[in-house]
Structure to design on (442 residues):
């Protein structure tokens, strides 16, 4: 089965192709030249590519390709209503909708907004329940703006979603977006006078296990796991992780106890911890962490951003890593060994993998 | 006809076409006739801060703005400001 790896960079999208052995990769692109591709996906339901595209001069939008990157069209009239007195700043994450809603996609953006498309990404409507959330005046931007960057669907319940906004925290809806409840109990906000507020946490990346209600998050203030739908969180860093700070997070599609993170030195020095590029793995739900780095550079002071790591669904699991140094690494053995499949790209903002025949 | 010349990123968005001939009474009308108008103006209708518009070499921000009338012989060049990395 053909495998497609999408690497969004500061200046274009690059597309890698392989087969399910994932041993050799061919590079196509650049596509969308000049655009910063914050995130791109291959929608497994129809094979369309969707890319969150931002430009310093020409603003924020979403591009779509229905021929694997040969041609692209741009979303129509993407923006915020005048009465909100807000303007769209950046698009951050696009997520395919539920399998029972084949035309639906979700789009996270700044300033702390969510859009829904029901026509395959041609047009988008802002989710009013989040736009007008009664706590919005208590949300603040992080270093990258007030970005809605994580969108996680409950595969068993089409009406339930979790989102992550920096820095407002994690929110959950049980009615497809009409109402949103903060879900941050137990997650720290060390930069606030009250270190455990209802909201205002700086979640960096939120993921939900494929066939489990378990959630994981890499936060500004640690790595966390929730086993009750986000009602409470347990902090997990310290046992083998050199730093609780980081952005990237990946999960194992068949083992909810396994997760991967890339520790960063800290909030004030955002380079990979200990002067090396290390992917750390837990296989016991976050009790212990260890790294295996064969194939990754042993001396590295680079950055891996929130969309900088992805996992596939094959067995053995494939992992993918994009660094701000312009390198892309791939592992076809669950992170034990890595190959640098590209270097000298523009700074890599995102990697995502999909299979499509 | 007024000629409008697009920079490379916008030309790619317009299917590779960098030169357009449009009939327009004002500068805003001329820009509104382009297939990339949403990249020039934000959702509130304001010209994006880093988009520069030159009419026969003169920056419209220094010559009366987008409501300025056109005679039909002008060349409008769109230029992204020097910004970013």
């Amino acid at each position: 089965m053909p495998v497609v790896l999408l690497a969004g960079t500061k200046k274009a999208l690059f597309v890698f192709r392989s087969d399910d052995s994932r041993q050799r990769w061919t590079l196509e692109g650049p596509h969308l030249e000049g655009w910063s591709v914050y995130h791109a996906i291959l929608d497994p339901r129809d094979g369309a590519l969707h890319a969150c595209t931002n430009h310093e001069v020409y603003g924020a939008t979403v591009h779509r390709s229905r021929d694997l990157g040969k041609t692209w069209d741009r979303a129509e009239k993407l923006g915020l209503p005048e009465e909100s007195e807000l303007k769209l700043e950046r698009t951050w994450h696009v997520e395919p909708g539920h399998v029972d809603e084949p035309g639906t996609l979700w789009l996270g953006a700044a300033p702390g907004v969510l859009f829904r498309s029901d026509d395959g990404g041609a047009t988008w409507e802002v989710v009013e329940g989040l736009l007008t959330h009664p706590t919005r005046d208590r949300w603040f931007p992080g270093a990258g703006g007030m970005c809605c960057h994580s969108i996680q669907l409950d595969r068993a319940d089409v009406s339930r979603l979790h989102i992550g906004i920096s820095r407002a925290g994690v929110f959950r809806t049980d009615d497809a977006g009409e109402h949103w409840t903060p879900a941050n109990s137990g997650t720290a906000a060390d930069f606030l006078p009250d270190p455990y507020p209802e909201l205002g946490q700086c979640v960096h990346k939120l993921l939900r296990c494929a066939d489990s209600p378990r959630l994981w998050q890499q936060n500004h203030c640690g790595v966390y796991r929730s086993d009750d739908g986000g009602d409470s969180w347990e902090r997990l860093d310290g046992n083998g992780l050199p730093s609780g700070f980081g952005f990237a997070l990946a999960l194992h599609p068949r083992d909810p106890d396994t997760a991967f993170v890339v520790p960063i030195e800290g909030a004030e020095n955002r380079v990979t911890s200990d002067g090396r590029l290390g992917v750390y793995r837990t296989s016991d739900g976050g009790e212990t962490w260890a790294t295996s780095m064969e194939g990754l550079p042993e001396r590295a002071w680079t950055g891996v951003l929130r969309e900088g790591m992805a996992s596939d669904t094959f067995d053995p699991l494939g992992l993918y890593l994009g660094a701000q140094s312009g390198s892309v690494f791939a592992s076809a053995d669950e992170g034990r060994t890595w190959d640098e499949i590209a270097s000298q790209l523009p700074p890599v903002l995102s990697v995502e993998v999909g299979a499509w025949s | 006809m007024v000629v409008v010349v697009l920079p490379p990123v916008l030309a790619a968005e317009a299917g590779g076409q960098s030169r357009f001939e449009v009939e327009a009474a004002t500068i805003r009308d001329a820009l509104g006739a382009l297939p990339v108008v949403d990249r020039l103006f934000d959702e509130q209708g304001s010209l994006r801060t880093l988009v520069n518009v030159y009419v026969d070499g003169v920056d419209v921000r220094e010559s009366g703005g987008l409501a300025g009338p056109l005679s039909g012989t002008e060349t409008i060049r769109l230029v992204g400001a020097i910004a970013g990395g």
